[in-house]
Specification:
Elements (H helix, E strand, L loop, with lengths): L1 H51 L3 E5 L5 E4 L1 H7 L17 H17 L3 E7 L2 E12 L4 E10 L1 H23 L3 E6 L5 E4 L1 H6 L8 H9 L8 H14 L1 E9 L5 E13 L2 E10 L1 H23 L3 E6 L4 E4 L1 H7 L3 H4 L13 H12 L5 E9 L5 E12 L5 E10 L1 H45 L3 H26 L5 E3 H15 L6 E8 L3 E3 H22 L5 E10 L3 E7 L16 H12 L3 E6 L3 E6 L1
Parallel strand pairs: 17-19
Antiparallel strand pairs: 1-2, 1-5, 3-4, 4-5, 6-7, 6-10, 8-9, 9-10, 11-12, 11-15, 13-14, 14-15, 16-18, 19-20, 20-22, 21-22
Helix pairs in contact: 12-13, 13-14, 13-15, 14-15, 15-16
């Protein structure tokens, strides 16, 4: 009985322990669930955080398989799909960038450290940091790539460096003379090379000597009152402009326009003075009056119409040719606005055009407009318009040369129509020639099928192939917009395809490799070249691979100083002779004749097979 009681006590203890263990398991499950919820919440927060930061995050395996991308990464790679995990990142990158990324991954993995670099992608610059990552929980190895868009930084640095160099070079190499004076002391502190040239000074002249000379270089000296007026104007308005006659160090006179501007240079006020030699302009201005009289005479006698408007868009010049074009006399239009030459609906266009020329947006432009004549008829007029300016560069109006091209456009339309008809006829001719050649080719095929003699059958087949080489050209011309030239690359592909199909019944595997530049040849040359290549390729098919079940034919065609093409096979080569020139057959003789038509040269060589080189 005592043993039974002990057993019951043991069972009770075990039961109590089991219940306690069960409670512990339940508590553990609750903790696990809580941890999982926290992890999920943490993932969401991490995902939100990664999408809010100003740089892109990529996590991938070493082979490029995507683990995680934030939103900015997707934007950079132009990925719109939400589900991309497991895809390969390299398919979203240009090949060069992909190779650079792979190289960085290899460096990071081997060195077990971060690798920094700069990539250019889609016109933008990115600073990229690549480093390996090891997850101690999952034992997974991955690669983290962080990238930051530094386009603005690089562009700003480049622009700043460029501007610094440019400004220095512009100052020293400028076509105008420049000098800088201290505002307080009125002392010259710098001048450029052009200013020394203008005053015929030595490049080695001291600044102090230049300073003393320039102050006395004016032909008409400047009074103290004038100096004060100039300085006050610069202080008030920030600049001053004038024209002055100077005397050089060697005693030669010249005229210069000069401008003074007050600048702040490193917290010190300075005068920047620019001098432009206008001696030639002064000479030209003296001649302007006579030139204007001559110009008026030329305008009146010009076969083209000439109209000139002032700054208010009013007619001030109207020659006799303009009278003939529009039917208005000069007396009727002088002082009139330009609107009378266009329909009401085009007045807005005319205003925009006027403003573009006035603002300098359009300097000189040729356009065709539809204009109204005095009789109300609409005509097509070719206008060449340009802005007119006085000697100070002030806009004074617009000058226009005009030509009535109404009849010319009608004639051009008729010519274009006739040209289209001729092109259609030429296209039809090529189509019919192609069809006729196809009929001849078909007749030869039927004839070859009806004869038993292998030699005759072979002759008919080769003749059929030659005709097909010509038919291909007419077929391509029929499909092309250009009826005078053939794309040689396309032609060679089609020609060799046709030849290969003719020999497809044989049990030999012959590969044809074409290496050709992409250019066009005239029809006459293309026909001749087609016949030559037809003979050479067929010759390779017939004789080169008699003792083998496979072979290769390579065709090269390029152009440098001359056109050059070659046909090479890896077969048995040409028949032995003391000289290749002595080798004679119908096909080779035909090739020589055709090369003579091209005014070229041909060489037959045995070099690991038969090689034929032709240049013309």
């Amino acid at each position: 009985m005592s043993e039974l009681k002990d057993l019951k006590k043991q069972i009770a203890v075990i039961t109590e322990n089991l219940l306690s263990a069960k409670n512990e398991v339940q508590k553990l499950n609750l903790e696990i669930n809580s941890i999982q919820q926290k992890l999920i919440s943490s993932d969401f927060r991490l995902n939100d955080f990664s999408n809010s930061i100003p740089f892109s995050i990529f996590e991938i395996f070493e082979n490029g398989e995507i683990i995680f991308l934030n939103s900015l990464s997707k934007e950079i790679l132009n990925i719109k799909d939400n589900i991309i995990k497991g895809e390969n990142i390299f398919k979203y990158l240009p090949s060069q960038v992909a190779n650079d990324v792979k190289h960085n991954i290899e460096l990071a993995v081997n060195s077990k450290s971060k690798v920094s670099s700069v990539f250019k992608l889609n016109g933008k610059y990115f600073k990229v940091l690549t480093f390996p990552r090891f997850d101690e929980i999952t034992n997974e190895k991955s690669i983290i790539i962080l990238s930051e868009d530094i386009t603005l930084q690089i562009e700003s640095e480049t622009e700043l460096n460029f501007k610094t160099i440019l400004l220095s070079k512009v100052y020293e190499e400028a076509p105008d003379g420049f000098m800088i004076f201290e505002f307080e002391s009125d002392k010259l502190i710098s001048c450029n090379k052009k200013l020394k040239e203008m005053f015929e000074l030595s490049e080695l002249s001291y600044i102090s000597d230049i300073n003393n000379f320039i102050r006395s270089a004016r032909v008409k000296s400047l009074s103290e009152t004038d100096k004060e007026i100039i300085i006050n104007q610069v202080k008030i308005y920030g600049f001053f402009e004038d024209e002055v006659e100077y005397k050089t160090y060697k005693g030669n006179n010249f005229w210069a326009s000069y401008s003074i501007k007050l600048l702040n240079l490193e917290n010190e006020e300075v005068f920047l003075i620019r001098l432009s030699d206008i001696s030639e302009i002064k000479k030209i201005n003296k001649q302007l009056f006579l030139d204007k009289q001559k110009r008026t005479l030329q305008i009146e006698q010009s076969p083209l119409g000439y109209i000139e408007w002032n700054e208010k868009f009013e007619v001030v010049e109207w020659n006799k040719s303009s009278e003939k074009i529009f039917g208005y006399t000069k007396h009727e239009v002088i002082g009139k606005s330009a609107y009378f030459l266009v329909e009401k609906k085009l007045k807005v266009v005319l205003d925009e055009y006027w403003n573009d020329i006035k603002s300098g947006k359009i300097i000189g432009e040729q356009k065709v407009y539809e204009n109204l004549t005095n009789s109300g008829a609409l005509i097509k007029v070719n206008w060449f318009s340009t802005g007119l300016y006085d000697t100070n560069g002030k806009f004074t109006g617009i000058g226009c040369l005009i030509e009535n091209i109404t009849e010319q456009l009608k004639n051009e339309a008729e010519i274009n129509l006739q040209l289209q008809e001729k092109e259609l006829l030429l296209s039809e001719v090529h189509h019919r020639v192609k069809n006729n050649l196809a009929i001849i080719s078909g007749l030869l095929f039927m004839q070859s099928e009806s004869v038993d003699d292998p030699k005759i059958k072979q002759i008919l087949t080769e003749s059929q192939s030659r005709i097909k080489s010509m038919a291909i050209i007419h077929d391509q011309l029929y499909k092309s917009e250009n009826f005078s030239e053939i794309n040689i690359q396309d032609y060679l592909k089609e020609l060799t395809r046709k030849i290969a199909s003719s020999y497809s019944s044989t049990d030999k595997k012959i590969d044809i490799d074409i290496e050709s530049s992409n250019f066009a040849l005239p029809i006459s040359q293309a026909l001749t070249i087609g016949l030559i290549i037809n003979e050479l390729v067929i010759n390779s098919y017939k004789y080169a691979f008699a003792n083998t079940s496979k072979g290769k034919i390579k065709i090269r065609f390029n152009k440098k100083d001359k056109y050059f093409f070659s046909v090479k096979d890896n077969g048995v080569g040409y028949p032995l002779a003391e000289k290749m020139e002595d080798v004679s057959s119908l096909g080779i003789n035909l090739i020589r004749i055709l090369v003579q038509q091209l005014k070229g040269e041909v060489k037959f060589i045995n070099e690991n097979g038969a090689v034929c080189n032709i240049s013309f």
